[in-house]
Amino acid sequence: MRGKLVVGNWKMNGGLAANAALLAALVTGWRVGNLARPGRQMAVCVPFPYLAQARDVLAGSPIAWGAQDLSMHGAGAHTGDVSGSMVADFGGRFVIVGHSERRAQHAETDAVVAEKAKAALLTGLTAIACVGETLAEREAGEWQRVVGRQFDAIADALGADLPLAVLAYEPVWAIGTGRTATPGQAQEVHEFLRQRLVKAGAPDVMVLYGGSVKAANAAALFAQADVDGGLVGGASLDATEFLAIAGA
Ligand code: PGA
């Protein structure tokens, strides 16, 4: 039983006042909308400075919180970095690793992403490890090679702990573009990942889909056999939209 997980990735958005309104609306909306179902979970991954705010507003609610990145190191001379144990200190449960924006804007390699996934698990966080091909790679017929390589790096690093992670398939061409993968395209890649997970002895790892998920397309995506929920960027900043996705 894998259940369904919907995670908001706020990216570098927010402010104290806007967050307070959004988080309160999520807490109320979850309750009033009667969204609680066995196996259904919701979380938000916020910028580091707002972890304390997320903890204060969400503590005691069914909504979990976490971060969007972490250091691969435990502590020490790493100016500007934030460790997994610091995120855990604030009650964080999840951390996104290997988002395509980190890979592209911070030159994070497969090896770095794998080390970060390991660091997350070591500090008791659940890594949401992202994989996904660019448009050029898809058009060149290379998505299996790219997604397979990204997956293998994570799976090899985590070894027997792979079952503790969550995966997210996020085709780069669908992120923030309004161009969502069709449910069939998503399922094809998720099934490919599921086969790898089965081979790696971790058949029950959740595989989220991310890339322009909205209330209007969530139900069709989540109805796919190997899609276990979503990693939601832009639409997670709108409480009504995000709650509708979580309820899909
Ligand atoms: P999007 O972003 O929903 O705005 O496309 C998803 C993500 O980058 O995680």
Describe the structure.
42% of the residues lie in helices and 16% in strands. With 248 residues, it is of the alpha/beta class. It has one domain (4-246): Aldolase class I (TIM Barrel), CATH 3.20.20. The longest helix has 17 residues, at 16-32. The structure holds 2-phosphoglycolic acid. Residues 9, 170, 175-176, 210-213, 231-235 line the site of 2-phosphoglycolic acid.
Short overview:
Helix content is 42%, strand content 16%. By secondary structure, the protein is an alpha/beta fold. The chain is globular and about 45 Å long.
Topology of helices and strands:
Layout: E1 4-9, H1 16-32, E2 40-45, H2 51-58, E3 63-67, H3 84-89, E4 94-97, H4 100-105, H5 110-122, E5 126-131, H6 135-139, H7 143-158, E6 166-169, H8 183-199, E7 207-210, H9 215-222, E8 229-232, H10 239-246
Parallel strand pairs: 1-2, 1-8, 2-3, 3-4, 4-5, 5-6, 6-7, 7-8
Helix pairs in contact: 1-2, 1-10, 5-7, 7-8, 9-10
2-phosphoglycolic acid binds at residues 9, 170, 175-176, 210-213, 231-235.
Features:
eight-stranded parallel β-barrel; 248 residues; 8 strands; 42% helix; TIM Barrel; single chain; alpha/beta; binds 2-phosphoglycolic acid; globular
Identify the CATH class. Alpha Beta
Distance between the termini: 18 Å
How many beta strands in the DSSP annotation?
8
- Please tally the helical runs, counting DSSP H or I stretches of 4 or more residues: 10
- Largest sheet, spatial ordering of strands: 1-2-3-4-5-6-7-8
The helix-and-strand class reads alpha/beta
Taken from the alpha-carbon principal axes, the silhouette is: globular
Hey, roughly how much beta strand do the residues contain?
15-25%
The CATH superfamily bears the name: Aldolase class I
Second-tier CATH architecture: Alpha-Beta Barrel
Q: Give the helix level as a range of percent.
A: 40-55%
List the secondary-structure elements in sequence, H or E.
EHEHEHEHHEHHEHEHEH
Q: Unreliable segments (pLDDT under 50, ≥5 consecutive)?
A: none
Sheet with the most strands, sense and barrel status: 8 strands, parallel, barrel
Report the CATH topology name. Answer: TIM Barrel
Bound molecules: 2-phosphoglycolic acid
